[in-house]
Every structure is written in C-alpha cells, then in structure tokens.
C-alpha cells in the first residue's frame, strides 16, 4: 500500500541514524495510520514504528529517552498545531454565532420598529383623511354662505329695481 500524500516536508533530523536517502520523508506506520484517520487502539494492535536506514536495514523504535535527547516529538508538535488551529476555528465559529445572534436581535428590533411605524402610518392616514374631510366641509360652508349672501344681494337689487320701475 502506498503512503498517503502529504505535501509538507518532514524534518527527520531528530532521528540521526534514520535518514532516508531516497529523497522522500520517512513516515512511520503509526503516523500513516494517524494521517489516514484509521487509528483505533481498541480494535487493532499497534505496529512498532520502524524505518529503513540508508543501508536498507530496519532499526528498532527509539525509546522515550532517545526521543527527548533528539528534540521535541514531531507528532506532538503536529497535534498541538492541530489543536491550536481547532481552537482558532472554534473561536471564529463562536464569533460567527455571536454575530448571527446579534443580527437576529437587530432584525427583531427592526421588525418591531416596522410594526410600530406601520401602526403610526395607519393612524396618520386615518387622521389626515378625517382632517381633509373637516376642511373640505369648512370650505364648502364658506362657499355656501358666500353664495347665499350673493343671492340675497342680487334678490335685493332685482327687488329694488322692480319696485323702482313700478313707481
């Protein structure tokens, strides 16, 4: 089975006697399982990590003392990097959720304002129609009064002219 594609170069300097001359990085079997996401310690026995040296012979795995003497554990560093990335992603998601909740609250507030404005607009429309009718009647009253006064004046003039022509 071929190794999974991993575009990042491997730093194998912490394994001084385990350098691979083939140009590619040395990937331990446990790392392969971790990369493939198939690591399940309860169902499968874990193989001992071994790699090929330049001469092609297999070396036993390094002890924890050897690993500590050669620098930090690369898997632990990758796990910490992944955890840091997960924390960052979690923070971004929390920020996005808070933004969505705030947006929902603003939308609710806008909806309430819209409903209040709609009620105000209906009230204004009713009041303006009522006021328009009142002023229309007031204008008509004055028109009727002026028309009656003019009719009385014309009747008086006509009545006076008729009486004056009779004499």
Automatic annotation (TrEMBL):
The lineage of its organism: Eukaryota, Fungi, Dikarya, Basidiomycota, Agaricomycotina. One of its GO terms (biological process) is vesicle-mediated transport. This is V-SNARE coiled-coil homology domain-containing protein. Signal peptide: none annotated. PROSITE patterns: V_SNARE. It comes from Kwoniella heveanensis BCC8398. Residues 10-20 have a biased composition (Polar residues). InterPro entries: Synaptobrevin-like, Synaptobrevin/VAMP, V_SNARE_CC. Residues 78-138 form the V-SNARE coiled-coil homology domain. Residues 1-75 are annotated as: Disordered. Keywords: Coiled coil, Membrane, Transmembrane, Transmembrane helix. It comes from the Eukaryota. One of its GO terms (cellular component) is membrane. Coiled coil: none annotated. Residues 41-53 have a biased composition (Low complexity). The chain crosses the membrane at residues 142-162.
